[in-house]
Amino acid sequence: MKKQKEKSTAGFVLTLIGGLFILGVSVLYGFFMSMFLSFGGGEFLGIFGGMVLAGVVSGILVIAGSILIYSRKNIIGAILAIVFSLVGLAGLGGFFIGTILGVIGGILALVKK
Q1: Left, alpha or beta for 98 (phi > 0: left; psi -120 to 50: alpha)?
Q2: To 5 degrees, how large is the angle CA 88–CA 100–CA 22?
Q3: Among 45, 63, 65, 43, which residue's Cα sits nearest to residue 53?
Q4: Distance between CA atoms of 74 and 54, rounded to whole angstroms?
Q5: Per-residue pLDDT of the chain (113 residues; tens, 9 = 90+)
Q6: What are the DSSP calls for 11-73, one per residue?
């Protein structure tokens, strides 16, 4: 009889919340920046667009890492969550709360807590 791997519940929950923060803040940031750009700030479109894109992609990949952690693929999910939580800083990182939660959750998943 095979022994099942332990689920890293705390790591899953923290990375999921962190990914949702990163994704949510990036979407809101994109919405408010589109309002700002409609008033004539078009020269900043590339910078703001890149920040929003980095935040949205990072948020989605942190959430994907949390799903991997939940499905007992802890090492791959934790590395994905940690790396893209840090990349998410380019898109404000969920007001840094998302980045902190993602990194802590990834570390907890690595040590299987």
Answers
A1: alpha
A2: 35
A3: 45
A4: 24
A5: 556 666 789 999 999 999 999 999 999 998 888 887 777 766 667 778 888 899 999 999 999 999 999 998 999 999 999 999 999 998 888 889 999 999 999 999 999 86
A6: HHHHHHHHHHHHHHHHHHHHHHHHHHHTTT-GGGHHHHHHHHHHHHHHHHHHHHHHHHHHTT-
